[in-house]
Amino acid sequence: MRIFSTVLAILAGYFLSCLPAQAGTISEVSEAVCTEMKTRSVLKADSPVPCRRLRVVYFSYLGFDGKAHHDGEIVVLDAAADDVSSIFEELFRRRFPIGGARAMEHYDGDDTASMRDNNTSGFNHRALTGGGSLSVHAYGLAIDINPVQNPYIAFAGEGQAKVSPEAGSRYANRARLRPGKPERQGMAEDIVHVFAHHGFVIWGGDWDNPIDYQHFQISRKLAEQLAALPADKAREIFRLHVKQVRDCMRTASKKSSVQTASIACRQTQ
Prior knowledge:
Residues 1-23 form the signal peptide. Keywords: Signal. This protein is 34% helix and 16% strand. The protein is an alpha+beta fold. The chain has one domain. The strands form three sheets. A three-stranded antiparallel β-sheet has the order 1-2-3, covered by helices on one side. Strands 4-9-7 form a three-stranded antiparallel β-sheet. Strands 6-5-8 form a three-stranded antiparallel β-sheet. A hairpin with a 5-residue loop joins strand 2 and strand 3.
């Protein structure tokens, strides 16, 4: 009987481990997933953060089909995981639609493929689009949301613009309401203040060239600092950063709208 009970316990543990993680939870990256991330070029030997510092945030989201989905996942640095979880909880409450959210190993670390699939994503060891220094995505402290509705636009010359992904071209005009056309959803302008409230104060939609409507991040300086600190200290510093942003927004909102307050506090970054 004791052997039978032990076998049942082992089998129960195995089947539970095969179940998808519950939305609203935060998990460490398992050794198996860590290996897969390395195999698929998402995590590299010279990544600024090791696998043990990454967390998987699981969440529910409203799809563009109007249905609730409970399979959202995004990988971020441990210090910001709680706030990232809160961001997506808030988006779900606001019924802000999301096209999908899968970790970057599903795309072999290919940002172009992820954008084309309208995938919301976080950690990915890669350079800035167009080359150069590391993206803040490589620190797990940047998030791209709904790339089709919020495309990346680079200007090469007079009147020349490249839109990525190509399907995002119809969203280059950022007006939500246009005469005779249906209202457009999933645009980042609606949620900039939500990200700012949780410390992600830099929005690519504020940039001149490129304009990266899908992109939210913290400052590179802070990202480098958090990556270099022990996990508990990094979490403490990030919480202090969030508090400072919220204090700024609270003070500014006494004189203006929440959206205007968000703009004022983002300008300090």
